[in-house]
């Protein structure tokens, strides 16, 4: 690790000021991914602003009937929060499918959104990686790309976003509240993460001096019909090869609302709203699910080692929808 | 916030190695420490305080050997900075036994032969205690999943599970 | 207190230290003025270092020195000096010897600084320029460059064909030709390799090393650095797993020693987890099997060939293809074993080296044959059961495999098996059952031990062996205590110290048989001395008594014929005015006796898997294994050894794969997030039975060893269960979900 200076902010304004005042500064909260990457010199800030004391560490009801997850609430506290368990069980499931209990006890909700990819080449400084070192190339395209994207990749980067939590948040249409020197704004979840294009070094649309203050869940939690399926190389403590968050709103066996978000397949949690709309006002049955799955994977493109992901994604979508259609609690 | 390494050595000397004062309670003992920002809790314990019971198995949160209890919660001590925990209370493997003898989980690890080389063991024990406090493990599958953040290369998992089951049972009996 | 300990499920004597964090591993020894070394690894697989610029790193306050090939003092001249007790044929790698890069992640510099943080930082500021040469790391594309896998290496049996394979194969009714593959694996013990080297005032060294042989480390350091052995003390009381990774001295030992000698300060060097992928792995093998049988299943001909990888500088050999002759009754066996030299580090013995992989392919092929014959796979094994090693034409010193098959099959419920593949479903899951045999060598190596009995009845026994989690401390204690009729609490076992009497490397499942026997012998010697002294006591009932007349029990010497006649051991010591009794002994294998037999452990493994038909996710739900490992010294620790072996088998079958990026010539998933080792959630129910038969040919104490046998056969049993579940034969490990997904799916 390279040396850095440290300061602790007691409130949001100080935090934002501190990060603007120091060159090459970053916020640190849970630190579980930031320190990991600093240790291998993939990230090397000169200053860290500790934001673990700025409040924003509670879960509260919002006026519109939704739920506000403070950015500094840990992943574990979120997953086990009674309101989350009751109203947003999809989110609880997705969080608990990720990382390990120890990591979930430290990692925060804001930080979860900012996790970097697990691409081997991003993690290995001796190899080419446009995300790590813009312009150096992408070793994964012709390398070992079993983990890599099948949607939305570019010739510059085929990395995937590793979060499970974010897949659920994408399905739930969460909103990310952020604050920066110019005030606060709301970023719809689908606009929070970005596709790599020709600037894969940028994972999100969060500005460098902005800080996440909360993740807001809309009132609709799909507690009756949801599933999170995570396919991975071991039964726990592994990143997703393909994961699916599926939610349905069903009335008299007719689908009124449907969301399908995929993880492990793109640079961001992947949604295809056009495909999802195929389900609306249709019966909740296998034929319909197969059709939407086919529509989603139609635009998938694989690389040498990840071709299986396309069919795995298709099947996982169908399975997830089948299960979601049957969950009654 | 450019993502570039420091250019000059002056950068390094000026800010880096500035020490900050923190106080920590580790296993009931208070420590007043001068720490550099880049020192992890794990390195603080092992390299600076000679509390080597907490193990380094990967230094990246990928194995769980460094699990400690921070304010009673299990975390990976390798992925957190000491400087961020001013005033915190930490329990490590060295702090579990008391005058009455071993913590019941420690004793159960011995009885069930829930380790071989012993290197992941302090982390497994702290993780077990953390798991019991969390109170979320209801089934065998829960236990297995919630103990999966601790890799045991010797493969003592099934014996570790026996310890956790026994500990949960005892805990249930003690807390009506 | 009862003093018969052997065979009992005793708690580990080192358990207390391990559960309290007071067991100290190589990186945990401190010394005043200790400094930290961080190794820099090469970024290329082959070429030369054009320049190493250490200027910016050395500028940092607290950075003491950076060792590179440019400033490392002249050390031993000869490659031979770098040979260790486990070196394969060839010229060992010499760290910091020249500008030549022979493999990716080769250690090219050591940064030493006052603190670990500083050393790590300084390492980032060292700039290296390379002259890159083309490398080749691809086994599959280089088979035409293969050379014979031969050469002298302890435990290695060069391939040796018997009978007339071609003729018999051509003539047979049923033929099978198949090919198996498995990826590379890395040992990844939880403790990363580390050495702490203390420079002593007299120029000697005290070295805390992660090793499976303190004497090997001492030898290595002595030869390379030209220091007399008696001035080097290597200590390794606890080893955080090794599985073979500690059989050879690894480069952190070289680095820490170099720095300590040059700086005349204590130096600690601990590798990083990625660096744990830089010094030896279980090599990839491509194995071809041809099996021929008559319709009743009798094997007529077997050909087992393997292509494996090694480095350019050493020819790593292991027993991959040598197992069919030992496992089955077949007169015509062809064995071919070839190596391809590639630009990588030399492979390294990893738990059941050769056996884990060779038997995987053999036992998978046997399963294929069984289906081809429409025969129960267990029946096929029994049909070809052999009481004789066909290669050596010698009987087995002991073999309870038949009983292992029976016990394990019964416990598993094998008789309920539906022979039809893809015949059992549970919801989305296909359920499959598979079985396999396992085999490993049973060996006793020479070992020495010493013991000292004190007047208070306390006994200390010692041997320069290791306990890498195997339970060596505990079985030494049990054997010593039982031999002298003492409670275990009165016995202290010492190991992992080069000043103790000789023991060979702790590996290959040899330690219990070897060191155990030495401990037994040395305690017998003390017993004889005690009896002799007892006979000299006035009115002694044991005047002129012989060892066969007495037993040592409950801290007494007891008349075998009459329990009421006894003398407490402490009384003997007191009445004879003995402060201590000290003995040393050497236990040599009885080669004459041993050479009349083939000596092996065996196992029968049965596995159940559940596979999501659509998603391919595999869960091993049950493993039942029965083990033929001779006498079991400690039911608890031996059970753990087998348990660990089975876990390794699950991990090998489904998860482990060090993936080489051939463009870079570098293992690319070099951490524990992406190199998957089985976690708790992957675990099946594991049922273990020992079918004991004391084997006094393998070792006088009847022990055959349990370190490897638990692993051998497990991957095959799982692979065979996957076939039974899905009807799909997957011929490469690990069996990941993409391989197991059905071709077509209902969804």
From TrEMBL, chain A:
<dbReference type="InterPro" id="IPR016166">
    <property type="entry name" value="FAD-bd_PCMH"/>
</dbReference>
<dbReference type="InterPro" id="IPR036318">
    <property type="entry name" value="FAD-bd_PCMH-like_sf"/>
</dbReference>
<keyword id="KW-0285">Flavoprotein</keyword>
<dbReference type="Pfam" id="PF03450">
    <property type="entry name" value="CO_deh_flav_C"/>
</dbReference>
<protein>
    <submittedName>
        <fullName>Xanthine dehydrogenase family protein subunit M</fullName>
    </submittedName>
</protein>
<feature type="domain" description="FAD-binding PCMH-type">
    <location>
        <begin position="1"/>
        <end position="222"/>
    </location>
</feature>
<dbReference type="InterPro" id="IPR005107">
    <property type="entry name" value="CO_DH_flav_C"/>
</dbReference>
<keyword id="KW-0274">FAD</keyword>
<dbReference type="InterPro" id="IPR051312">
    <property type="entry name" value="Diverse_Substr_Oxidored"/>
</dbReference>
<dbReference type="InterPro" id="IPR002346">
    <property type="entry name" value="Mopterin_DH_FAD-bd"/>
</dbReference>
<dbReference type="InterPro" id="IPR016167">
    <property type="entry name" value="FAD-bd_PCMH_sub1"/>
</dbReference>
<dbReference type="Pfam" id="PF00941">
    <property type="entry name" value="FAD_binding_5"/>
</dbReference>
<dbReference type="InterPro" id="IPR036683">
    <property type="entry name" value="CO_DH_flav_C_dom_sf"/>
</dbReference>
<dbReference type="InterPro" id="IPR016169">
    <property type="entry name" value="FAD-bd_PCMH_sub2"/>
</dbReference>
TrEMBL record, chain B:
<dbReference type="Pfam" id="PF01799">
    <property type="entry name" value="Fer2_2"/>
</dbReference>
<keyword id="KW-0479">Metal-binding</keyword>
<feature type="domain" description="2Fe-2S ferredoxin-type">
    <location>
        <begin position="20"/>
        <end position="96"/>
    </location>
</feature>
<protein>
    <submittedName>
        <fullName>(2Fe-2S)-binding protein</fullName>
    </submittedName>
</protein>
<dbReference type="Pfam" id="PF00111">
    <property type="entry name" value="Fer2"/>
</dbReference>
<keyword id="KW-0560">Oxidoreductase</keyword>
<dbReference type="InterPro" id="IPR036010">
    <property type="entry name" value="2Fe-2S_ferredoxin-like_sf"/>
</dbReference>
<dbReference type="InterPro" id="IPR001041">
    <property type="entry name" value="2Fe-2S_ferredoxin-type"/>
</dbReference>
<dbReference type="InterPro" id="IPR036884">
    <property type="entry name" value="2Fe-2S-bd_dom_sf"/>
</dbReference>
<dbReference type="InterPro" id="IPR052914">
    <property type="entry name" value="Aldehyde_Oxdr_Iron-Sulfur"/>
</dbReference>
<keyword id="KW-0408">Iron</keyword>
<dbReference type="InterPro" id="IPR002888">
    <property type="entry name" value="2Fe-2S-bd"/>
</dbReference>
<dbReference type="InterPro" id="IPR012675">
    <property type="entry name" value="Beta-grasp_dom_sf"/>
</dbReference>
<dbReference type="InterPro" id="IPR006058">
    <property type="entry name" value="2Fe2S_fd_BS"/>
</dbReference>
UniProtKB/TrEMBL annotation, chain C:
<dbReference type="InterPro" id="IPR008274">
    <property type="entry name" value="AldOxase/xan_DH_MoCoBD1"/>
</dbReference>
<dbReference type="InterPro" id="IPR000674">
    <property type="entry name" value="Ald_Oxase/Xan_DH_a/b"/>
</dbReference>
<dbReference type="Pfam" id="PF02738">
    <property type="entry name" value="MoCoBD_1"/>
</dbReference>
<dbReference type="InterPro" id="IPR046867">
    <property type="entry name" value="AldOxase/xan_DH_MoCoBD2"/>
</dbReference>
<dbReference type="Pfam" id="PF20256">
    <property type="entry name" value="MoCoBD_2"/>
</dbReference>
<feature type="domain" description="Aldehyde oxidase/xanthine dehydrogenase a/b hammerhead">
    <location>
        <begin position="20"/>
        <end position="134"/>
    </location>
</feature>
<dbReference type="InterPro" id="IPR036856">
    <property type="entry name" value="Ald_Oxase/Xan_DH_a/b_sf"/>
</dbReference>
<dbReference type="Pfam" id="PF01315">
    <property type="entry name" value="Ald_Xan_dh_C"/>
</dbReference>
<dbReference type="InterPro" id="IPR016208">
    <property type="entry name" value="Ald_Oxase/xanthine_DH-like"/>
</dbReference>
<dbReference type="InterPro" id="IPR037165">
    <property type="entry name" value="AldOxase/xan_DH_Mopterin-bd_sf"/>
</dbReference>
<protein>
    <submittedName>
        <fullName>Xanthine dehydrogenase family protein molybdopterin-binding subunit</fullName>
    </submittedName>
</protein>
């Amino acid at each position: 690790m390279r040396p850095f200076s440290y300061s602790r902010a007691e409130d949001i304004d100080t935090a934002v000021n501190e990060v603007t005042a120091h060159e090459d500064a970053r916020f640190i909260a849970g630190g579980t991914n930031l320190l990991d990457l600093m240790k291998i010199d993939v990230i090397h800030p000169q200053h860290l602003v500790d934001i673990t004391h700025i409040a924003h560490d509670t879960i509260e009801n919002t006026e519109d009937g939704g739920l506000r997850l403070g950015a500094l609430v840990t992943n574990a506290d979120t997953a086990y929060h009674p309101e989350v368990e009751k109203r947003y069980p999809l989110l609880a499931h997705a969080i608990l499918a990720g990382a390990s209990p120890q990591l979930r006890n430290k990692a925060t909700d804001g930080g979860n959104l900012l996790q970097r990819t697990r691409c081997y080449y991003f993690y290995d400084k001796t190899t080419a990686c446009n995300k790590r070192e813009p312009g150096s190339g992408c070793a994964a395209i012709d390398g070992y790309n079993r983990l890599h994207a099948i949607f939305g990749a570019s010739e510059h980067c085929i990395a995937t976003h590793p979060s499970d939590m974010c897949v659920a948040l994408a399905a739930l249409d969460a909103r990310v509240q952020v604050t920066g020197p110019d005030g606060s704004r709301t970023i719809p979840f689908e606009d929070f993460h970005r596709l790599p294009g020709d600037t894969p070094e940028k994972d999100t649309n969060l500005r460098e001096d902005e800080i996440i203050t909360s993740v807001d869940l809309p009132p609709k939690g799909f507690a009756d019909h949801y599933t999170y399926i995570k396919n991975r190389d071991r039964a726990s403590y592994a990143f997703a090869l393909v994961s699916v968050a599926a939610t349905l709103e069903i009335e008299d066996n007719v689908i009124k609302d449907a969301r399908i978000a995929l993880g492990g397949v793109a640079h961001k949690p992947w949604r295809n709203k056009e495909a999802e709309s195929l389900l609306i006002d249709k019966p909740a049955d296998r034929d319909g699910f197969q059709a939407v799955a086919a529509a989603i994977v139609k635009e998938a493109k694989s690389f040498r080692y990840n071709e299986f992901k396309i069919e795995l994604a298709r099947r996982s979508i169908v399975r997830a929808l089948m299960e979601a259609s049957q969950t009654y609690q | 916030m450019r993502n570039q390494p420091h250019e000059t050595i002056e950068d390094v000397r000026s800010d880096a190695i500035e020490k900050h004062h923190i106080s920590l309670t580790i296993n009931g003992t208070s420590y007043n420490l001068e720490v550099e920002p880049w020192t992890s809790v794990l390195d603080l314990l092992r390299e600076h305080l000679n509390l080597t019971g907490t193990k380094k198995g990967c230094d990246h949160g990928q194995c769980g050997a460094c699990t400690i209890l921070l304010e009673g919660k299990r975390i990976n001590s390798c992925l957190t900075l000491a400087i961020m925990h001013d005033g915190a209370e930490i329990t490590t493997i060295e702090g579990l036994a008391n005058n009455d003898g071993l913590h019941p989980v420690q004793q159960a690890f011995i009885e069930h032969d829930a380790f071989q080389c012993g290197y992941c063991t302090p982390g497994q024990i702290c993780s077990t205690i953390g798991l019991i406090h969390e109170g979320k493990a209801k089934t065998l599958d829960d236990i297995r999943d919630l103990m999966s953040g601790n890799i045991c290369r010797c493969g003592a998992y099934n014996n570790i599970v026996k310890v956790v089951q026994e500990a949960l049972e005892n805990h249930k009996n003690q807390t009506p | 207190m009862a003093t018969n300990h052997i065979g009992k499920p005793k708690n580990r004597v080192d358990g207390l230290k391990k559960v309290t964090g007071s067991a100290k591993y190589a990186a945990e020894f401190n010394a005043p003025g200790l400094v930290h070394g961080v190794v820099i690894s090469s970024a290329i697989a082959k070429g030369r270092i054009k320049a190493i610029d250490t200027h910016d790193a050395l500028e940092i306050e607290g950075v003491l020195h950076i060792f590179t090939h440019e400033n490392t003092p002249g050390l031993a001249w000869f490659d031979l000096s770098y040979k260790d007790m486990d070196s394969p044929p060839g010229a060992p790698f010499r760290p910091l010897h020249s500008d030549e890069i022979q493999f990716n992640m080769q250690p090219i510099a050591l940064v030493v600084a006052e603190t670990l943080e500083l050393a790590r930082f300084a390492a980032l500021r060292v700039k290296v320029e390379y002259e890159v040469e083309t490398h080749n790391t691809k086994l599959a594309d280089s088979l035409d460059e293969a050379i014979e896998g031969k050469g002298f290496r302890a435990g290695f049996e060069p391939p040796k064909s018997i009978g007339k394979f071609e003729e018999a194969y051509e003539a047979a009714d049923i033929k099978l030709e198949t090919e198996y593959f498995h990826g590379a694996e890395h040992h990844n013990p939880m403790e990363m390799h580390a050495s702490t080297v203390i420079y002593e005032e007299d120029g000697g060294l005290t070295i805390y090393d992660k090793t499976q042989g303190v004497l090997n480390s001492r030898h290595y350091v002595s030869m390379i650095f030209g220091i007399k052995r008696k001035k080097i003390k290597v200590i390794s009381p606890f080893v955080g797993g090794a599985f073979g990774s500690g059989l050879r001295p690894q480069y952190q030992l070289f680095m820490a020693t170099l720095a300590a000698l040059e700086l005349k300060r204590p130096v600690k060097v601990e590798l990083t987890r990625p660096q744990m992928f830089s010094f030896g792995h279980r090599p990839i093998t491509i194995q071809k099997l041809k099996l021929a049988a008559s319709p009743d299943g009798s094997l007529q001909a077997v050909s087992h060939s393997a292509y494996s990888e090694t480095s350019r500088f050493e020819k790593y050999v292991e027993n991959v293809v040598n197992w069919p002759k030992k496992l089955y009754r077949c007169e015509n066996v062809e064995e071919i074993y070839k190596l391809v030299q590639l630009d990588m580090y030399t492979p390294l013995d990893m738990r059941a080296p050769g056996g884990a992989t060779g038997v995987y392919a053999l036992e998978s092929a046997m399963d294929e044959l069984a289906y081809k014959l429409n025969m129960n796979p267990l029946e096929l094994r029994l049909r070809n059961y052999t009481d004789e090693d066909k290669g050596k034409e010698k009987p087995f010193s002991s073999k309870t495999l038949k009983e292992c098959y029976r016990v394990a099959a019964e416990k598993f419920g094998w008789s309920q098996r539906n022979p039809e593949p893809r015949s059992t479903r549970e919801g989305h899951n296909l359920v499959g059952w598979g079985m396999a045999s396992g085999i490993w060598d049973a060996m006793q190596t020479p070992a020495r031990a010493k013991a000292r009995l004190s007047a208070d009845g306390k006994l200390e026994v010692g041997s320069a062996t290791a306990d890498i989690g195997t339970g060596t401390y505990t079985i030494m204690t049990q054997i010593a205590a039982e031999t002298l009729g003492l409670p275990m609490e009165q016995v202290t076992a010492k190991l992992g110290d080069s000043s103790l009497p000789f023991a060979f490397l702790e590996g290959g499942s040899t330690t219990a048989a070897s060191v155990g026997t030495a401990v037994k012998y040395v305690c017998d010697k003390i017993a004889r001395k005690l009896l002799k002294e007892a006979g000299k006591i006035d009115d002694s009932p044991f005047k002129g008594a012989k060892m066969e007349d007495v037993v040592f029990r409950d801290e007494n010497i007891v008349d075998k014929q009459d329990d009421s006649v006894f003398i407490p051991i402490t009384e003997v010591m007191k009445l004879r005015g003995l402060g201590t009794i000290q003995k040393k002994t050497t236990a040599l294998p009885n080669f004459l006796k041993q050479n009349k037999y083939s000596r092996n452990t065996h196992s029968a493994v049965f596995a159940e898997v559940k596979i999501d038909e659509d998603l391919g996710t595999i869960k091993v739900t049950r493993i039942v294994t029965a083990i033929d490992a001779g006498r079991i010294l400690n039911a608890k620790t031996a059970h753990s050894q087998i348990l660990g072996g089975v876990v390794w088998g699950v991990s090998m079958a489904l998860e482990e794969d060090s993936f080489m990026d051939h463009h870079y010539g570098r293992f690319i998933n070099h951490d524990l997030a992406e190199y998957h080792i089985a976690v708790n959630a992957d675990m099946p129910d594991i049922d273990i039975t020992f079918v004991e038969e004391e084997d006094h040919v393998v070792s006088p104490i009847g022990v055959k060893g349990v370190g490897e046998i638990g692993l051998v056969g497990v991957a095959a049993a799982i692979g065979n269960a996957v076939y039974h579940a899905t009807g799909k034969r997957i011929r490469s490990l690990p069996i990941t979900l993409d391989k197991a997904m059905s071709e077509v799916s209902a969804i």
